[in-house]
Amino acid sequence: MPPKPDVTTEAPGAATPFISVKNLRTYFEIRGSVVDRLMGRDAGTVKAVDDVSFDLAKGEVLGLVGESGSGKSTLGRSLLGLVRATGGSATFEGQEIVGLDEPALRRLRARMQMVFQDPHAALNPAMTIEQSVGHPLKIHKRVKGPNDLRRQVVAALERVGLSPAETYLDKYPGDLSGGQKQRAVIARAIVLDPVLLVADEPVSMLDMSVRSKILKLMIDLKDSLGLTYLYITHDLATAKFFCDRIAILYLGRIVEIGEARALYADPRHPYTQALLEAIPDPDPNHTLPRNLPRGEIPDAAKPPHGCAFHPRCPRAFAPCGWEIRDLMGLLEARWAGMAEADHRAERALIGTPKIPDGPEPTSRLPAASGDGAALLALLEGIRAENPDEPFWTGVKALRAGAGQVEIDWHAPVTPRLRHDGKTAAACHLLDPELWPQAAGALSEADPSATAPA
Length: 453
Ligand SMILES: Nc1ncnc2c1ncn2[C@@H]1O[C@H](COP(=O)(O)OP(=O)(O)OP(=O)(O)O)[C@@H](O)[C@H]1O
Known about the structure:
Mean pLDDT: 88
Oligomer: single chain
CATH class of the domain at 19-111 and 194-265: Alpha Beta
Strand order of the largest sheet: 6-7-8-3-9-10-15-14-16
Strand content: 15-25%
Structural class: alpha+beta
Radius of gyration: 25 Å
Number of strands: 16
Distance between the termini: 32 Å
Bound molecules: adenosine-5'-triphosphate
Low-confidence stretches: 1-9, 284-290, 446-453
Largest sheet: 9 strands, mixed
CATH superfamily of the domain at 19-111 and 194-265: P-loop containing nucleotide triphosphate hydrolases
Helix content: 25-40%
């Protein structure tokens, strides 16, 4: 049975939400190496968007925020049908997008446009600004002749502040600055009168000095043209300035979503907290506590079990999905801080464990020397050195076996979004059944709870 939709974010009062995404999935099959294919081996699947649900109200700006690889672009592209979603549903003004054929998608795309990150790559260097901005009008057969094309292009250029527009028509992208190019890209995006813009990192490639001007332009356009935005960024600082609501993505899933003000004032998910703490503080006298996530975002083809953030989470505990890969990560981090000789000696005691495809109640760590008791003593020693390391909360039991150590794990639980009326977050620390200190904090999502004001 498909999981219950995370309905915490339905637009208020609207019988047909402007955009409604329910349990959307976009998975990519990895082709693997030639050898993999010859051997018929499955190289795996990247769950770029995994069971994502949200609503977007008309006129709203929803930010999609997360590190590189969290699935922001794939989610945006899936909504426009530029990438085919593999499951779930996404409706635009009531019309289902998932599974729509290409001609119908093309018609819809006149109303839903994308602004890409790199204005230098988005404009064809061999086309004049008039040709580039007018191109969608021709494709969608919205021109009655050259004069009409020019009139519409001029109007779009004026709207984005490229004025007087006539002076830009015959220029090539190479004649424009970065900010002017991005204005031309935005002109091309609005020339068909769309109602939704998916803006994918629209200012990240621009000089600091022009970023705020382009964002200000986008806000002005939103108000004057009645646009709705999906704003994709890795930058929580600009998202705060720009968005009504924000969804934080991690490895293809929304881990927190809610009103921007509430999310900044009281972030509930440890990942959101860490991202916010990583925003550089403009005041040099004000030192922020640093609690950054450890390590890199994991391989999306082999995501961690339970809560995908648990290996980097400073507050992870027993049900978060601990597994043998976490033990190997812990050992690698330990060895990186040791003298070479000590590291080698310890490394020599530990064999290579089998990494299972899914959760397993018990894992086996081979003892390279064949002496399971010695390996157990080593692991117990490591635990005693740092008993507060979150990893150990996931270990139910450690035993010496024949030539190995057996590790029993607490069963992983995948967190679901829970809300407090303004934000919803998917973290076991908010679940009173798993974390009694959370009692009364948040409850499971319900349809009327965290709708945007
Ligand atoms: N066409 C594709 N085929 C296979 N994997 C893909 C494809 N497109 C994206 N991915 C993978 O899907 C995951 C999400 O990628 P996506 O580009 O959506 O993330 P992102 O958050 O937008 O990252 P960035 O900020 O770097 O653009 C990544 O692991 C990426 O490698």
